[in-house]
UniProtKB/TrEMBL annotation:
<feature type="compositionally biased region" description="Polar residues">
    <location>
        <begin position="1"/>
        <end position="10"/>
    </location>
</feature>
<dbReference type="GO" id="GO:0004848">
    <property type="term" value="F:ureidoglycolate hydrolase activity"/>
</dbReference>
<keyword id="KW-0659">Purine metabolism</keyword>
<keyword id="KW-0378">Hydrolase</keyword>
<dbReference type="Pfam" id="PF04115">
    <property type="entry name" value="Ureidogly_lyase"/>
</dbReference>
<keyword id="KW-0456">Lyase</keyword>
<feature type="region of interest" description="Disordered">
    <location>
        <begin position="1"/>
        <end position="29"/>
    </location>
</feature>
<dbReference type="InterPro" id="IPR024060">
    <property type="entry name" value="Ureidoglycolate_lyase_dom_sf"/>
</dbReference>
<dbReference type="InterPro" id="IPR007247">
    <property type="entry name" value="Ureidogly_lyase"/>
</dbReference>
<dbReference type="InterPro" id="IPR047233">
    <property type="entry name" value="UAH_cupin"/>
</dbReference>
<dbReference type="GO" id="GO:0000256">
    <property type="term" value="P:allantoin catabolic process"/>
</dbReference>
<protein>
    <submittedName>
        <fullName>Ureidoglycolate hydrolase</fullName>
    </submittedName>
</protein>
<dbReference type="InterPro" id="IPR011051">
    <property type="entry name" value="RmlC_Cupin_sf"/>
</dbReference>
<dbReference type="GO" id="GO:0050385">
    <property type="term" value="F:ureidoglycolate lyase activity"/>
</dbReference>
<comment type="subunit">
    <text>Homodimer.</text>
</comment>
<dbReference type="GO" id="GO:0006144">
    <property type="term" value="P:purine nucleobase metabolic process"/>
</dbReference>
Length: 196
């Protein structure tokens, strides 16, 4: 296992444009689609992965490649692209591995996920956004399209676990038509536990 610190939460491996996507707005084009981020619940997140709020057997890591190593990194994702809103124009997935994130500093963060489209890319019609409290982790299922992490507090770090073998199969990136995520109220960081 190796440990490193990155600022984006992911490294570029392979990028492919979405058919008909263009991240640059043009005059005369219709307005950017927007969705509202919702509070994270295990039921709403179940199609995409597991909520890690306590130690259970439901969020066991999966590695579909025997030669891939378990990697644990500390990532420091950026904040939203603008106050109260985050614009999504890039998604990624890990075809052969689950990927888990656990907050280290008690700050809330944004998770944006999408099911597969018939062409294998992300289905933006099914895009879902979740505000995750700073005392809760998530684990994506294998091959789930998601957006690189975004912190919603002043700053924060996440522990990230994934399996990698150094090949292009570690992570696939896809440019998508921009979608605005309305953030709404962000939960306050949890209070520290008092000693017993």
């Amino acid at each position: 296992m190796r440990a490193s610190i990155t600022t984006s939460g992911s490294r570029l491996a392979r990028r492919s444009p979405a058919p008909g996507s263009n991240a640059t707005p043009h005059p005369g084009r219709r307005a950017m689609r927007e969705i509202a981020a919702q509070p994270l619940t295990p039921e709403a997140f179940a199609p995409f992965g597991d909520v890690v709020a306590e130690v259970t057997r439901t969020a066991l890591p999966f590695n579909g490649r025997p030669g891939a190593r378990a990697v644990l990194e500390v990532v420091a994702p950026p904040g939203p692209s603008e106050p109260g809103r985050h614009v999504v124009s890039l998604m990624e997935r890990h075809l052969h591995s689950t990927q888990a994130f656990l907050p280290l500093d008690g700050e809330a963060y944004l998770v944006v996920v999408a099911p597969d489209a018939p062409d294998g890319g992300p289905d933006l019609a099914g895009l879902a956004a979740f505000v995750v409290p700073g005392d809760t982790g998530v684990q994506y299922r294998t091959a789930v399209w998601h957006v690189p992490m975004t912190m919603l507090g002043a700053s924060g770090r996440l522990a990230m676990h994934v399996h990698k073998d150094g090949s292009d199969a570690d992570c696939e990136f896809r440019d998508v038509s921009p979608v605005g995520i309305r953030l709404g109220a962000v939960p306050a960081p949890p209070l520290p536990s008092s000693p017993l």
